[in-house]
């Protein structure tokens, strides 16, 4: 009896109750579709959304849990993981309403699509709290493989097939690179897989292992950079965004990216704490390239989805400022920005879905004069794009303010100034779309807008799309007003997370310097 109670205590399986709820929801959807067939399809999305809401409530109830570690330390349900898991679950919750009509109109199975989407959600949620190398890799592959399947879900569309093949080939290569990096980490730590144990072993290691640690760092960052679409590991992003079903792109741009940043924080501040200066330098380079290339190339795009693809690359560069700052304010500003980015980006993609369902195109030039035929869509898309550009008083403005201020306080002045310049560039291509929709005279309407169909919300699947759009726009509008409580929540998740606070403490204490011969520098562990 004592043995079993000890095992139960060490497993502490209650910490994955939210993931358990999502698994049960997934099984209900698959079995229900198998048994009931078409009669179940109408209520199927609402079952998925109810399960995700229940998972978010379960995550809320786990806030400040006294014993966050479970499965012998392989998973951590600390506040940092809770808030990232909420972001991943919320991104799926908003994606489902926008996908109902889109998937039904394509003639494919909605149950299978939602099943794969929930599987990707599970991968992202487990990745956000993974504290052990095996769990990190399995969660990462669970998210990645589900993403490949969703990308090629429209089997009759050649562009979707091409996007899935490119994503699969590049993604498999990045997974192999990442796995090689963590295998080096496993060897250097003397066979440890738990991140905290690796951190202890690497800290105690001699300088002779510094070459292996540096190689491991480069390979691991390459894998993470692929997941967050950072330059130069962004090659898949424009093609996959353009060819994939739009709801899939919406999830990848928020849920997958948030899970990637959660992995970056958890892995880099623990296992790679001895080379903090080095990974800060690498991420500074990635942020610079991402902000410049993402914003400059977006100027030349003619497809709305490709423009948003390069925009997401640039947004990843902005978020990296908080990671590079490496302070409480830096990590909190990352979380806050990802929270509001969720709504403004998904709102923009919802507008793109609505326009493409009605016109069959996503070309920017075809939006000309849209205000004359669809004022609601024009208003919603304008608010989301202006928020992405950082126009006050919308949420994106406050998100950028917090990020840039955290970077300025951390002393990375050059990066913050570059971010300000590239933000001005981004405003141009966002406002270009708004101007095209609003300012055009009636005789300058595009052909797609001239033939714009009558707006009918009573078509099956359109009402959830309308509700999802309105919720996203309202959240984007009022998140700026509520920025202080939201940032306080993000800050609490950082200050109450032991791994981040122990890292700050280690950096402040005087330590014996470790020589890193390959980089020809010395720094504190």
TrEMBL record:
One of its GO terms (cellular component) is plasma membrane-derived thylakoid membrane. One of its GO terms (molecular function) is oxidoreductase activity, acting on NAD(P)H, quinone or similar compound as acceptor. InterPro entries: NADH-Q_OxRdtase_suN/2, ND/Mrp_TM, Ndh2_N. NDH-1 shuttles electrons from an unknown electron donor, via FMN and iron-sulfur (Fe-S) centers, to quinones in the respiratory and/or the photosynthetic chain. The immediate electron acceptor for the enzyme in this species is believed to be plastoquinone. Couples the redox reaction to proton translocation, and thus conserves the redox energy in a proton gradient. Cyanobacterial NDH-1 also plays a role in inorganic carbon-concentration. It catalyses: a plastoquinone + NADPH + (n+1) H(+)(in) = a plastoquinol + NADP(+) + n H(+)(out); a plastoquinone + NADH + (n+1) H(+)(in) = a plastoquinol + NAD(+) + n H(+)(out). Residues 130-426 form the NADH:quinone oxidoreductase/Mrp antiporter transmembrane domain. It comes from Stanieria cyanosphaera (strain ATCC 29371 / PCC 7437). Keywords: Membrane, NAD, NADP, Oxidoreductase, Plastoquinone, Quinone, Thylakoid, Translocase, Transmembrane, Transmembrane helix, Transport. This is NAD(P)H-quinone oxidoreductase subunit 2. Pfam families: Ndh2_N, Proton_antipo_M. NDH-1 can be composed of about 15 different subunits; different subcomplexes with different compositions have been identified which probably have different functions. Belongs to the complex I subunit 2 family. The chain crosses the membrane at residues 20-36, 43-62, 82-103, 110-127, 133-153, 165-188, 208-228, 248-273, 279-300, 307-325, 331-355, 376-398, 410-431, 465-487. Residues 13-100 form the NAD(P)H-quinone oxidoreductase subunit 2 N-terminal domain. Its EC number is 7.1.1.-. It comes from the Bacteria. It is a multi-pass membrane protein. One of its GO terms (biological process) is photosynthesis, light reaction. It is found in: Cellular thylakoid membrane; Endomembrane system; Membrane.
